[in-house]
Amino acid sequence: MPGLRHRPVLVYAALFALLLAVVTAALLLGQARLSDPGLATMLLELRAIRIAAAFVAGAALAMGGVVVQGVFRNPLVSPSILGTTAGSMLGGQVALLLLALVRPSLRGLPGLAPEMVVPLGCLVGAGLALAIVLAFCRERTGTLMLLLTGFILSSLFLSLGGFATSLSQDSWEVSRAVVAFTLGGVGGVGARQLAAGVPLVVAAGAAAWLWGRTLDVMLSGEEEATTLGVDVGQARRWCIAWVAALTAAAVSIGGNIGFVGLIVPHVMRPLVGVHHRRLLPAAGLAGGIFLVACDVIARTLPSRTELPLGVVTGVLGAPVFLILLARSARGMSHG
User: Fold this and answer.
1) Cβ(201)–Cβ(56) under 8 Å?
2) pTM of this prediction?
3) 2-325 topology per CATH
4) Of 54, 92, 87, 258, which Cα lies nearest the Cα of 174?
């Protein structure tokens, strides 16, 4: 879209038009039909919750991608690089296992539904990852150390998540829930689960937006930012905290969904520029649109079972990212 390049008003107009289109498609399309008047209202309500869940999760992942790419001054990193995604996944898996253990003895006690326990587990897992990362995020800690810490944490948490999945095999119901959570999807999201994640996304997104000018200065390099009066260590710690909160909210709603936080900021940056107060809301809107569209594909493709949303984003996101990466490589070689 060369005509939209660096024209934010046109970009936002195009994004809102796309949002209207994908929401309309998400409400009307699907293997279930709206022809039965008795079921039409219920089906539309379920789809509306699903649309909202996909939009919120996509927006959270995209905004987290913008922030983490700004912190590391690298458009090729994603929120998962900090280990918070794997930490949130592990927390959600452990929450499902614990819920299966305590539910028989505490049946009927309010607040034990998976839609409330899973967000809490994801938040605890992301907080654990955040605490470990921040322990290494000292004043003199370099970017390489942070990246290595995040990589090691991700590997550790993914291994523990695999162990949690193996423990769930004793119960078909629990195993199915854990595997579905690992593959990603918004099909079973309830209103209470969505309500638990939305405030976290709004608060973390607003906080990241307020730090936008600081992130702009940090793009020039840590030494230059320090010269201009920015406390780089403090800014980095707070921004990592916002990324962890956004990631926890997204995982608690949609499970493991990849590539959104990686490719959406990469796509939007040439269109609206690198200034974070402009890029953050645009990427959030685009990330929500992208995930709603992916959910429509997951629901409408002919299949005996619904495709996991994380599989759809991976299949669509990987080729798009490779194309963008190839274009960037060609641009650098010609430059």
Assistant:
1) yes
2) 0.88
3) ABC transporter involved in vitamin B12 uptake, BtuC (1.10.3470)
4) 92
